[in-house]
Amino acid sequence: MTDISQERIERAIRTTCATVLRNEHYFSDLDGLAGDGDFGTSLATGFRVIDKEWDEIPKTDIGAMLLKISMLVSKHVGGSSGPIWGTGFMKAAMLTRGKTSITLQELADMLGSAIEGIQARGGAKLGDKTLLDALIPVHEKLKEHAAGDGDVCAALCEAAAAADSAVDETRNLVAHRGRASQVGERSANTPDPGIVAIATILHDWCKDCGLAQTPNAAEVAKATA
Ligand SMILES: [Mg+2]
């Protein structure tokens, strides 16, 4: 059972910036299959600001850092994703005030609180073909390992695989929430770009552990290639 240091969380944020920026056009192309094609650019606009302003983001503790990131995400991520992703980071920040390291259980609790916040904010539930369809099974994996072996890297890699599976499991659903819901049936047979983004970010976190695995969903395989 090893704690997760603030340094490790900082690295995960930097990795997230790199993942989002590398896949800007690809995520927008995926969104264009059923939505308005802006998802990748919306996300990248916000994470580009985080990347550029990295040195000015407070690092006194994990909570202060995540609170600033939540504000930058809410302000700069465009479309419907800004308030949703911003809420997730804000909830995680609230649970880490004053902390410079966390346990895997605390990481699981941060994600649990983020999920509750996102559900309250967007009104989506499991099966609505939104990023929650990735985050909920990921939360389960983190909880399992927190209660079991406490292995952070194993938890992240299994979480990546769970999010990856969510891409295929939701592919044939019609979106009920988010922008893709506006095109109704046209959203069937297309992957949800938010779910692909979560899976891709987790695969890159897994690579940071030195435990890269091969994604199953074609869209995630392309994004992590
Ligand atoms: Mg869109």
Automatic annotation (TrEMBL):
Gene3D superfamilies: 1.25.40.340. Keywords: Kinase, Transferase. Residues 7-207 form the DhaL domain. NCBIfam families: dha_L_ycgS. The lineage of its organism: Bacteria, Pseudomonadati, Pseudomonadota, Alphaproteobacteria, Sphingomonadales. This is Dihydroxyacetone kinase subunit L. Pfam families: Dak2. GO terms for biological process: glycerol catabolic process. One of its GO terms (cellular component) is cytosol.
